[in-house]
């Protein structure tokens, strides 16, 4: 299994794996129901990621695969007591290599899907009012595009300086390339860049405060948090996981700045004040920023 995502309400679980299928389960009282699940078939290669659209657009799910395609699925209403099924409503074949990541834009912007591919291209699918899909593609980068993440729709400091109600939400996303810095962050090619694959990137939700946060997870077992105050530059902060000896209550030891295994995913809480870090050894840690601007581990759990 490569990915698992709950829908907006936490009532549906979508998974994808190397068997080229996407599976959708109902979640009742925190447990997945093994009966009544749906298996979506359409990819011809391993499926890397799934993403739910906002429920205002219906029950819509996107998936991406090694086969170079991004598929969009929609649940059709059932008749009578019978439940509805899932059908493929869009097959996106603009890319010529593996599509590694898909991400829906904030619902305030619309039904817009960003796709990152190993061919170095970033494509954006937009659902139009006439029921058709419009596709746009950004020029290819010099290396594979890996994860992609949308910015919050509202500009920083909107809580302090309210924006006009006629101002449309901003459309911004960030993606990372294989063995390269994150695109459009304004970073130079120096020691700031990750030394290995960037596995995941996540833009923190905004509650209208002046500061913006982006977290990146790398194959080299590091997690970086980039912060930006207003119009200032992006500043790098690295997470320093506590050594095992310190976790056990022994004398404090200096952290190496690397997790025990490859970091696969980073995910922000809805308020953007907690960061969850998931590693290949099954351990998940929660991180929070202190008043001094430092990041500390506030909880850890094993799968």
Explain the overall architecture.
By secondary structure, the chain is mainly beta. It has one helix and 23 strands. Strands 1, 2, 3, 4 and 5 form a five-stranded antiparallel beta sheet that branches. It has a four-stranded antiparallel beta sheet with strand order 6-7-8-9, with no helix packed on it.
Key structural traits:
five-stranded antiparallel β-sheet; mainly beta; globular; 1 helix; 303 residues; four-stranded antiparallel β-sheet
* Low-confidence regions: 183-194
SSE succession: EEEEEEEEEEEEEEEEEEEHEEEE
What about the largest sheet?
5 strands, antiparallel
Mean pLDDT: 81
Shape: globular
Q: Helical element count?
A: 1
Beta-strand content: 35-45%
Distance between the termini: 15 Å
User: Strand tally, please?
Assistant: 23
Radius of gyration using CA atoms only: 20 Å
Estimated structural class: mainly beta
Helix fraction, binned, reads: under 10%
Which helices and strands occur, and which strands form pairs?
Blueprint: E1 3-6, E2 12-16, E3 21-28, E4 31-32, E5 38-41, E6 47-52, E7 60-65, E8 70-75, E9 86-92, E10 99-104, E11 112-117, E12 122-127, E13 133-138, E14 145-150, E15 173-177, E16 198-203, E17 211-218, E18 223-229, E19 235-238, H1 244-247, E20 263-268, E21 274-279, E22 283-289, E23 295-302
Antiparallel strand pairs: 1-2, 2-3, 3-4, 3-5, 6-7, 7-8, 8-9, 10-11, 11-12, 12-13, 14-15, 16-17, 17-18, 18-19, 20-21, 21-22, 22-23
């Amino acid at each position: 299994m490569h990915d698992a995502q709950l829908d907006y309400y936490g009532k549906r679980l979508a998974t994808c794996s190397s068997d080229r299928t996407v599976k959708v389960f109902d979640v009742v009282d925190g447990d997945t129901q093994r009966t009544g699940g749906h298996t979506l078939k359409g990819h011809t290669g391993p499926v890397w990621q799934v993403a739910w659209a906002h429920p205002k657009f219906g029950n819509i799910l996107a998936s991406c695969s090694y086969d170079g395609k991004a598929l969009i699925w929609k649940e059709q209403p059932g008749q009578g007591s019978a439940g509805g099924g899932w059908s493929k409503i869009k097959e996106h074949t603009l890319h010529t290599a593996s599509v590694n990541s898909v991400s829906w834009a904030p619902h305030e912007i619309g039904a817009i899907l960003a796709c990152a591919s190993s061919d170095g291209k970033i494509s954006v699918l937009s659902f139009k009012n006439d029921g058709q899909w419009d596709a746009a593609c950004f020029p290819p980068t010099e290396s594979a595009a890996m994860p992609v993440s949308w910015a919050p729709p509202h500009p920083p400091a909107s809580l302090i300086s309210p924006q006009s109600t006629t101002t449309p939400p901003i459309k911004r996303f960030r993606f990372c390339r294989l063995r390269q810095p994150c695109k459009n962050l304004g970073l130079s090619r120096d020691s700031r860049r990750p030394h290995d694959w960037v596995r995941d990137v996540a833009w923190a939700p905004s509650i209208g405060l002046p500061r913006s946060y982006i977290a990146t997870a790398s194959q080299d077992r590091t997690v970086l948090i980039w912060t930006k105050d207003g119009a200032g530059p992006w500043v790098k902060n690295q997470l320093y996981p506590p050594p095992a000896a310190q976790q056990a209550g022994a004398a404090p030891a200096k952290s190496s700045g690397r997790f025990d295994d490859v970091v696969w995913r980073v995910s922000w809480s809805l308020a953007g004040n907690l960061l969850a870090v998931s590693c290949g050894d099954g351990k998940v840690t929660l991180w929070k920023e202190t008043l001094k601007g430092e990041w500390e581990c506030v909880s850890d759990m094993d799968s």
